[in-house]
């Protein structure tokens, strides 16, 4: 048990509030926040910039040896670098969301990103947010939360977030994209976005951010003796 790091897995569909929750919990416990979706988005950005279609698995796989992706610890979180360049907001567009969801269905892409995710958790106490953290990446995580909210609540949040960033879109488009991504992410054959057997279901539809964080912290405090 000596030097064993603490791992908290937060999985769930897009817009469920995982990343806001994960960031707040990381701050509260002094853990490193890891956004694993950013890794899939960065692969999506790379192949999109190459002009490769998001469903062209053969050419996406052929690109992988060229993709130099790293996660470095910065300000309490994992920052993604692609070919030495820090990746920022350019991966947060609807186009790259679609690319990320599509590339994440390819087993070779998932295998390519596996060690980057696990190595950070070996050396740090982490709160990791994604789709398969509790099932595949960190099956030994001490706490696994599967964070959900209704599609409408999630679409509302995502729409507000995109508007704030100045992305032009409509609520209807965001809801439609969310439903498409839900089906694409949870219906895929490999590492589908489903709860681990030992995950705790955490529906935050009617909760404020403060309530969400406090309720999740109550669960974590019971399991992890900090
Ligand atoms: O969390 P996000 O919306 O930034 O993730 C973008 C896409 O990446 C999502 O549609 C599915 C995929 N993803 C995944 O398959 N596994 C993860 N651990 C994280 C994200």
Detailed description of the structure:
It is built from 9 helices and 8 strands. Helices cover 49% and strands 17% of the residues. The chain is α/β, with parallel strands linked by helices. The two termini are 14 Å apart. The protein binds 2'-deoxycytidine-5'-monophosphate. 2'-deoxycytidine-5'-monophosphate binds next to helix 2, helix 4 and helix 8. 2'-deoxycytidine-5'-monophosphate (DC) binds at residues 14, 36-37, 40-41, 100-101, 104, 130-133, 181, 185.
Which ligands does the model contain, each kind named once? 2'-deoxycytidine-5'-monophosphate
The general outline is: globular
Mean pLDDT: 93
**Percent helix:** 40-55%
Main sheet summary: 5 strands, parallel
Q: Can you list the strand order of the major beta sheet?
A: 2-6-1-7-8
Overall radius of gyration: 17 Å
Give the tally of β-strands. Answer: 8
| Intertermini distance | 14 Å
Order of helices and strands: EHEHHEEEHHEHEHHEH
By DSSP (H or I, 4+ residues per run), the number of helices equals 9
Please outline the helices and strands:
Blueprint (H helix, E strand, L loop, with lengths): L6 E5 L6 H12 L2 E4 L1 H13 L7 H7 L5 E6 L2 E6 L2 E2 L7 H10 L3 H17 L2 E5 L2 H5 L5 E6 L2 H14 L6 H17 L12 E4 L5 H15 L3
Parallel strand pairs: 1-6, 1-7, 2-6, 7-8
Antiparallel strand pairs: 3-4, 4-5
Helix pairs in contact: 1-9, 2-4, 4-8, 7-8
This protein binds 2'-deoxycytidine-5'-monophosphate (DC).
2'-deoxycytidine-5'-monophosphate binds next to helix 2, helix 4 and helix 8.
């Amino acid at each position: 048990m000596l030097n064993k790091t603490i791992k908290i897995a937060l999985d769930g569909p897009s817009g469920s509030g995982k990343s806001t929750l994960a960031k707040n919990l990381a701050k509260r416990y002094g853990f490193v926040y890891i956004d694993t979706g950013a890794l899939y988005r960065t692969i999506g950005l790379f192949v999109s910039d190459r002009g490769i279609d998001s469903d062209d698995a053969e050419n996406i796989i052929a690109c992988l040896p060229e993709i130099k992706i790293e996660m470095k610890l910065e300000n309490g979180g994992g920052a993604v670098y692609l070919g030495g360049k820090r990746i920022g907001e350019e991966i947060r567009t609807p186009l790259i969301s679609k690319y990320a969801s599509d590339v994440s269905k390819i087993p070779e892409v998932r295998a390519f990103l596996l060690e980057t995710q696990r190595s950070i958790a070996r050396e740090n106490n982490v709160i990791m947010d994604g789709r398969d953290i509790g099932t595949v990446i960190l099956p030994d995580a001490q706490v696994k939360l599967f964070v959900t909210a209704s599609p409408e609540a999630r679409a509302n949040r995502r729409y507000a977030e995109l508007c704030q960033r100045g992305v032009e879109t409509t609520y209807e488009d965001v809801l439609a994209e969310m439903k498409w991504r839900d089906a694409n992410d949870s219906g895929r054959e490999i590492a589908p976005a489903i709860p681990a057997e030992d995950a705790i279901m955490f529906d935050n539809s009617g909760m404020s951010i403060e309530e969400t964080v406090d309720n999740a912290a109550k669960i974590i405090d019971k399991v992890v003796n900090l």
